[in-house]
Amino acid sequence: MGLRKYQEKRNFASSPEPRGDEAKARRRRKNAPLFFCVQKHLASHLHYDLRLEHNGVLLSWAVPKGPSLDPAIKRFAAQVEDHPVEYGAFEGVIPEGYGAGIVMLWDSGTWAPESPDVDAALAKGDLKFRLDGYKLKGSWVLVRTRGYQRPGQKATGPSWLLIKHRDEWSGDLDITEFAPLSVKSGEDFPAIMAAQDPALWLNNPKAGGGATGAMLRSVIEQAAELKLAELERSQPARPKRERKR
Ligand code: MN
User: Fold this and answer.
1) How far is the CA of 237 from the centre of ligand 1 (A)?
2) Which of 90, 120, 107, 92 is nearest to 38 (CA)?
3) For the whole model, what pTM was predicted?
4) Would you call 154 a catalytic residue per the annotation?
5) Which of 137, 164, 184, 227 is the catalytic position?
């Protein structure tokens, strides 16, 4: 797929997302472990973006309900445009445009294909792989379906199902509930937003209706409160610094 679609969708003057350098990513050491991540993305809908490094890009699937450790639960995964490898470190606020919202690095680590030929597996629509992240481990499979789309899904790319294989890492623990925070900052959405400038969003909230809109509004309010508390904490520190001089 390459990065053209990714770059066309974004305005890098206003988005903090990386533009990406595919050629540089492809020059990586041949036997270097492959990177994977899952980014929890509060945008028009909350979803989890699964990304697997392959041929200098991150193959990407948007998983509305997030991964499940239960082999009996098949999670709908819409394949989306390839992302730059640099995107795997990204956590922050996309203030406007495509994907506007908050991105949390929910899990990251390395992955290894269990299918012998990744390109052939992708073409066939049956990619078996192992994950070694903080939260997700063990054997998984992505199976392409025949254009199956849930009502209300805006997905335009191929539809897949993400399924956990039964192994020592499978079980009925709800991993998205059990481990909801960032593996990068240890924080939740409000603190990730507060690290940026919540004022930007208070004046220009993209939060629409429904549950997602309410969630986003609540995150913005919490972020503003965190920011305010931070400012208040920083006030009494001032005389101390003055005494040092
Ligand atoms: Mn996304």
Assistant:
1) 40
2) 107
3) 0.86
4) no
5) 227
Task: Report pLDDT digits (tens) over 28-43.
Answer: 767 789 999 999 999 8
238 alpha carbon to ligand 1 midpoint, in Å? 41
- pLDDT digit string (tens) for 137-149? 999 999 999 765 5
DSSP string, 34-96: EEEEEEEEESSSEEEEEEEEETTEEEEEEETT---S-TTPPEEEEEEEEEEGGGGG--EEE-S
Residue 151 pLDDT exceeds 60: no
Measured distance CA(208)–CA(76) in Å, rounded: 24
Write the CB contacts of 106 (distance below 8 Å, at least 6 apart in sequence): 37, 38, 39, 40, 48, 135, 181, 182, 183
Q: How many CA atoms lie within 13 A of 34 on its CB side?
A: 18
The residue type of 85 is V
Angstrom distance (rounded) from CA 46 to CA 66: 9
Write out the E strands in the chain.
34-42, 46-54, 57-63, 75-84, 92-94, 101-113, 126-133, 137-144, 159-164
Amino acid at 15: S
Residue 231, helix vs strand vs coil: helix
Map tokens 């270097």 to a residue: 32
What residues contact residue 28 under an 8 Å CB cut-off, 6+ apart? Answer: 56
Distance from Cα 102 to the centre of ligand 1, integer Å: 9
